[in-house]
């Protein structure tokens, strides 16, 4: 749970249209994105919410998205999600998300380890040859402002 007064850094995806708008934005090409698939009825997924919020606060140069599969109908099929929670680490490239890693289940130690490894991943299509974690906080903050995302505290 976030401390009182701390805004969430996680962008909530509430529809396929929102997903498309964000993932097709050219501003986010070759950027690190971590997507958390969850459902309000799934206790293991709910237990992972604080960890995901914490990781978003720690790794400010990465875009963290949360998809409630009951709100964003069809996203489970689109992303081939079979269980919750599922964490997908992907690079945005040419309006497509390239899945780099996927973790299924509520294992905090493994999820932290895989997020750390992903953040140091260097995309082969990078123009700079660097690790491209410089997602650019301004861009993510602008995305949140443009789409009215305030985040959540719980």
UniProtKB/TrEMBL annotation:
Please report a single Pfam family linked to this protein: Thioredoxin
Signal peptide residue numbers: none
InterPro entries per the UniProt record, alphabetical: Thioredoxin-like_sf, Thioredoxin_domain, Thioredoxin_H-type-like
Q: Which SUPFAM superfamilies match?
A: Thioredoxin-like (SSF52833)
Which residues belong to any copy of the Thioredoxin domain? 2-120
PANTHER family linked: THIOREDOXIN, THIOREDOXIN-LIKE PROTEIN CXXS1
Name of the molecule in the record = Thioredoxin domain-containing protein
State the species of origin.
Centaurea solstitialis
């Amino acid at each position: 749970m976030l401390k009182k007064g701390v805004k969430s850094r996680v962008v909530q995806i509430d529809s396929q249209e929102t997903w498309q708008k964000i993932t097709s934005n050219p501003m986010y090409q070759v950027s690190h994105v971590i997507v958390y698939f969850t459902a309000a009825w799934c206790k293991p997924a709910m237990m992972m919410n604080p960890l995901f919020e914490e990781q978003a606060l720690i790794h400010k140069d990465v875009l963290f998205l949360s998809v409630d599969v009951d709100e964003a109908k069809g996203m489970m099929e689109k992303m081939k999600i079979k269980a919750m929670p599922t964490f997908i680490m992907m690079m945005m490239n040419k309006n497509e998300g390239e899945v780099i890693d996927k973790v299924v289940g509520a294992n905090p130690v493994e999820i932290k380890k895989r997020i750390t490894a992903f953040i140091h991943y260097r995309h082969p299509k990078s123009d700079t040859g660097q690790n491209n974690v410089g997602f650019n906080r301004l861009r993510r903050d602008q995305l949140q402002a443009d789409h009215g995302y305030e985040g959540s505290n719980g």
